[in-house]
Amino acid sequence: MSTPAMAEAADQSAPERIDLRAEFSAVGIGEILDQLDRELVGLKPVKTRIREISSLLLIERIRKRMNLTSEVPTLHMSFTGNPGTGKTTVALRIASILHRLGFVRRGQVVSVTRDELVGQYIGHTAPKTKEILKKAMGGVLFIDEAYYLHRPDNERDYGQEAIEILLQVMESQREDLVVILAGYGDRMDKFFASNPGFRSRIAHHIDFPDYSDAELLTISELMLSDMNYTFTPESRAAFERYIELRKTQPLFSNARSIRNALDRIRLRQASRLVADLDRTLNVDDIMSIETSDVLASRVFGAVQNP
Asked: Three-class SS of residue 141?
């Protein structure tokens, strides 16, 4: 039982002043934000929102030390956007920020889809969902394509059971688990409309825009640089054209599609080099992506032979 004397002692133990710069440096979230800037090209609205959330949590941490707050803030989030826009990367950095600021015990991310949560027969869903929650507790649970949890057109679907368990834990154990729901924007809107319990528990909605052509080209050059490859001026121009064409085709997944394209380009480059076993190779030969390596893509063939 609290007494006036106890309250006065608590107030006296709270610091009157805190050096904000020292506190910011001590928790190391600046390093994580800088890392996010290096890892992700563009996405300025996303990065701005992450910095705002980080600032809020830093101040919440200070308020707690000053005995000015007693309730853990709601930290569950929704990430919306097309595939390959950096949602998983941001989730990993968010987990690190939450951990360093003391809002989760572990900086881990457990990433799942419907299959890991929903069973196929009666009595199967609850154990699966609870096992995932147990694994994620103390960190972040990232549920990709979260709207697939809700299938109202199927009377024998067990997704609703998983939803009810998730909602209960998101509310009762929000001091020990942060849930991030991710997926396409329009489908997530419908999901929230059908499941208002989720919307009421989500504190932060972050939309991830598609990358521009210029940003995708920058991403491709960074990826190649990390693997010790480089475009020639001519192959760079060819890849610019590739990006323009590929974005008009089905199943384009932003940076993910760019990575896949570069993997295929490297295969073609290696085949081209090995085709002449009598030649001597230098570093430039090994590193250079030539125009023919890019133009051999079926994307260009599809344009020529619609």
From this structure: strand
